[in-house]
């Protein structure tokens, strides 16, 4: 029987600025089962990273979780104190941040930064933490682990720094790993190695992964379930097979059409027309309306609810399948 690990219910994360309220994450709901990889995809600025930071309770002023719940094993993380959330972050839930060079402290060795997690959450001695850290560095495929322990971030390559971030995230064998653009700024060979490593680690630790990316190829390779976000909203969700084989929201269709194919004969790639709307004072209508090639006047009558396509496949489009409330 499948076990529910994380459930996000109607999450709203807003940034209160002098120019207005930025609705970065606006009424988002989804679920992650134990052992499942959920991919979150969308253009830059659609709310993917803000949602991840909301789950970890790392939103800073002027941002705020305005509404909704983040249930981890039935416990609402949004309602915990800072002290309570610190016991969970890095222990039961860990995150690989987007850019390891800015996430790692340049004045401490990478080994000490990994060991710090173990000292905080596992009450190990310094010797035990060092031994465990060397094991972790070896586990993520870095040779000469003893020497790397005493290296500083600037002494390592981008791929090695990313592996160090993975080792740090795995230190306490978390149940949920959030990977925010884990292959950004890496060349394609290193990207493939990092993705393969994440797949192996998932099996080894039987953990769940939330994989955030704008790369549909990564989603196709790694994810079991995919959530497509646009302007702070979920516009389509379903199994990877369902979404890729039967895309049912015009935005998802546009993303798939804009991906390069080996057998492409056209000289120019497809681009979705128009611009992403600003997230301040969004209209009470489909946010994709101005860019949609199949829009109609009915699309202006409010943001569409989810329509059931089939099974667990939904799309927020009035022209996609029958409405789930029917």
Automatic annotation (TrEMBL):
Can you supply one Gene Ontology CC term for this chain's record?
Answer: plasma membrane
ABC transporter domain location is 6-256
**Does the record carry Electron transport as a key word?**
no
- Which InterPro entries does the record associate with it? AAA+_ATPase, ABC_Ni/Peptide_Import, ABC_transporter-like_ATP-bd, ABC_transporter-like_CS, Oligopep_ABC_C, P-loop_NTPase
Q: Is Transport included in the keywords of this UniProt record?
A: yes
Q: Name one GO biological process term.
A: peptide transport
List localization entries: Cell membrane
Protein name from the UniProt record? Oligopeptide transport ATP-binding protein OppD
**Encoding gene (name):** oppD_2
């Amino acid at each position: 029987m499948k076990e529910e690990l994380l459930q996000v219910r109607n999450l709203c994360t807003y940034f209160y600025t002098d120019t207005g309220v930025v609705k970065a994450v606006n009424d988002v709901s989804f679920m992650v089962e134990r052992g499942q990889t959920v991919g979150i995809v969308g253009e830059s600025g659609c709310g993917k990273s803000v949602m991840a930071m909301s789950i970890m309770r790392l939103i800073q002023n002027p941002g705020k979780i305005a509404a909704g719940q983040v249930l981890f094993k039935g416990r609402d993380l949004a309602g915990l104190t800072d002290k309570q959330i610190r016991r969970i972050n890095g222990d039961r839930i860990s995150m690989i941040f987007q850019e390891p060079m800015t996430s790692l402290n340049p004045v401490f060795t990478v080994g000490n930064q990994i060991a710090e997690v173990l000292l905080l959450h596992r009450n190990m001695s310094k010797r035990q933490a060092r031994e465990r850290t060397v094991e972790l560095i070896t586990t993520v495929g870095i040779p000469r682990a003893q020497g790397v322990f005493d290296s500083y971030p600037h002494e390592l390559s981008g791929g090695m720094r990313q592996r160090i971030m993975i080792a740090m995230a795995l230190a306490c064998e978390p149940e949920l790993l959030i990977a925010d653009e884990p292959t950004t700024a890496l060349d394609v060979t290193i990207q493939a190695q990092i993705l393969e490593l994440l797949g192996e680690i998932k099996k080894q630790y039987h953990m769940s992964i939330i994989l955030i990316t704008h790369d549909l190829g990564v989603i196709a390779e790694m994810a079991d379930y995919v959530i497509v976000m646009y302007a702070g909203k979920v516009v389509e969700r379903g199994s990877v097979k369902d979404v890729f084989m039967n895309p049912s929201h015009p935005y998802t269709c546009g993303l798939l059409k804009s991906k390069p194919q080996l057998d492409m004969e056209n000289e120019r790639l497809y681009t979705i027309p128009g611009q992403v709307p600003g997230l301040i004072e969004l209209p009470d209508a489909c946010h994709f309306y101005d860019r949609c090639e199949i829009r109609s006047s009915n699309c202006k009558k409010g943001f569409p609810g989810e329509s059931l396509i089939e099974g667990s496949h939904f799309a927020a489009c009035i022209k996609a399948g029958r409405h789930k409330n029917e």
